[in-house]
Amino acid sequence: MLQVKHLTILHKKDLTTLIEDLTFSLAPGARAAVIGEEGNGKSTLLKLLYDPALVEGYVEWSGEILDTGLRRGYLAQELPPETLAQPLWQFCAETPGFVRADPRAQADAARQVGLPAELFWDERPLGSLSGGERVKLRLALLLLDAPDLLLLDEPSNDLDLATLGWLEQFLQTCPVPVLFISHDEALLTAAANQIIHLERLRRRTAPRATVARMGYEQYARERLEGFAKQEQTARKERAEFDAKLARYRQIRDKVDHQLNTISRQDPHGGRLLKKKMQSVVSTGRRFARQEAELTALPEWEEAIFTAFDPERSFIPAGKTVLRFTQPLLLAGDAGAGAFAGAAGLAAPAAAAASAPSRPTSPQPGESPPPRVLARNIALWVEGPEHIGIVGANGAGKSTLLKQLAAQLLPRADLRAAYMPQDYGDLLLGDATPVELLAPGGSREEVTRARTLLGSMKYKAEEMDHPAAMLSGGQRAKLLFLGMVLRGSNVLLLDEPTRNFSPLSAPVIRRALTAFPGAILSVSHDRRYLAEVCTRLLLLDETGLHELPGAGE
User: Fold this and answer.
1) Residue 456: how many CA atoms within 13 Å on its side-chain side?
2) Considering 105, 243, 349, 552, which has the largest number of Cβ atoms within 10 A of its Cβ?
C-alpha cells in the first residue's frame, strides 16, 4: 500500500505552494486519477512519488511518503532528447523486466499494446516512432517489468482508438495500485475509482486538494450539486442577514440622529439615548460575529475561457481552403523544414514547403529508402469545415498534417496557424509568454497579452517564466492564445486537447466547435471528434477515407 500523509510541495522559484496538506492512500485495486488545471503540480506529484531526485531542482516538499518497499513503475509524460536519440533496442534493454523476460513474454506484451515484437530490437532511434508508438512501447515495457505500483502521466496521450480501448480494460483489471493523470474524460469515466483533485483558488494563490473515493462522473456531479446547494444556502442566509442588518442600521441611524439633536436641557433623555446606543453597538458586534459564521459562497477553480473573433476568423462557405494530393506519404517527410511562428507567436515566419522526397533504390553504402506510410492521398477542403483525421499509431497522421501546414502557412489569402504535437518545435528558447504574445513590447501590447494570459488562468509570475519551462497544458494555452491574437482562420491542430484538464477541455471544445474558420486536426480524443468535427477521415496505407457519422 502507498500512503501519503500531509504532503506539501513548494515551488522554489517563486515560492508558490503547489500542493498543501495532501493525504491519501492506495491499496491493491485502487485506480486513482489526479485531475486539475494545468500547472497545479500533477506531474510534479507523480515524479516525487517515483523518485524525489526528479524534482529536487525546482521544488521543496514536506510530509510523509510510506510505500513499504513497493517497486514503482513510472510512465513519464515526456522523454528527454538524449533518450529519444537512443536506439530502440538499447532503450528496451535498460528495463530489467524486458531483459529477464523470455521471447514469448516479450511477444505477448507487444501484442497487448498492438506493436510488432521485432520493434524491441530495432536499430532506429526512439524518436523516430510516432508519439502513440512511443507510449505503446513504454506501456509494454511496464507490463514486462511487473511493478507493485503504477504511476502513469497521461498514458492515453497519442494512443489510437483501439489501444485506448485496451488501456481502459487494462486499468479496470489491474491488480496493483494505479495513480494516473489523464485529461481524457472518457478514460476517467471508464477507469477511475478514486479522484484526487488539485486546485489553486483565489487567483491561484491558495491550493486545495480534494480526495474522493468514487468514480469521475459521480465526483463531477456531486461536486456541482454540492456547490449549487452551498450557493443556495449561502445566498438565502445572506439575504436574511442583509434584511436584519438593514433594520439594525435604521435603528442605529435613528438613535444617532436623536443623540445629535437632543437638547442639553434634557440630561435624563440624553442618558437614556446613550444607554440605548450602547445596546445598539452591542447588537452591531453580534451582527459582525453572525456575518463571519454565514455559509460561504463555494470556491472552485474556474475553467479557462477564450474565444476567437468571429469576424476575423470567418471563412465563407464557398472558399477553397485546400486542394492537396500526394502520391506517396513517406516516414519522416515533414514537408516543411521548420514551423517557428506557426501558431501566431513572435518568431520567424514558417519556411516554405520543400519538395517531398521520393523513394529511390539505395546506392552502395547508402541507407534504405524511407518507409512508405500511405499512397494516393487526396484532400479537398472548402469553407469552414472541421476535419478530424484518425488512424492507427504510426500511420503518418502527424507527418500528413505537417505537409498540409507547409502548404497553408505561406498562403497570403489565409491566416493559418499550426499547433504541433511537440510544443518544443515552437516554444524553444528563453522567451516568456508575455514576450511571445507582445513582441513589440509596447504598453498596449503587453497589457493585452497579460489580459489574455489572465483569461487562461496564468499567474503573474508564470507570465514571466520561460515558456519552455511551463507545463504541457500551459504551453498549449499559449499556442491557442497566439491563434486568437492573430485572428487565425485556418487551424492545423495535432492532438489539440491532449494537455488540457477535464475542466478546460470542454471549454476548448466549445470554442473550436463555434470557430467560424476551417480546422484540420489529428485527434484520438473521442469527445473532441464527436463534438467539434463535421468530417472524419481515416488515414491508412491506401490513403484518406471518409468515415460516416461525423457532425450528425
Assistant:
1) 28
2) 105
Q: Record the pTM.
A: 0.65
- Beta-carbon contacts of 525 under 8 Å, excluding residues fewer than 6 positions away, are 184, 495, 497, 498, 505
How many whole angstroms separate alpha carbon 524 and alpha carbon 392? 10
**Nearest C-alpha neighbor of 340 from the set 456, 227, 443, 429:** 429
Burial (CB count <10 Å: 0-12, 13-18, 19+), residue 47: buried
Sheet holding 2-11, edge to edge: 17-26, 2-11, 59-66
For position 473, what pLDDT does the model report?
Answer: 73
Query: Collapsing DSSP states into helix, strand and coil, what is residue 506?
Result: helix
pLDDT at 348: 34
Same domain, 382 and 529: yes
Kindly list the distances between the CA atom of residue 378 and the CA atoms of 368, 371, 375, 454, in Å, as whole numbers in the listed order: 27, 19, 9, 41
Clarify whether residues 274 and 377 are in a common domain: no
DSSP β-ladder status, 59-66 and 2-11? antiparallel
Residue whose C-alpha cell is 506517396 = 328
Structural domain of 269: 224-292
Cα 371 from chain centroid?
33
Residue 80 lies in a domain: no
pLDDT band at 534 (very low <50, low <70, confident <90, very high): very high
Supply 359's cell numbers. Answer: 523513394
Residue 160 · residue 137 · CB < 8 Å: no
Q: Which three cell numbers stand for residue 541?
A: 496505407
Q: What average pLDDT does the segment 138-154 reach?
A: 90
Last residue of a domain, one of 273, 292, 311: 292
Average pLDDT, the chain: 82
DSSP assignment string, 231-243: HHHHHHHHHHHHH
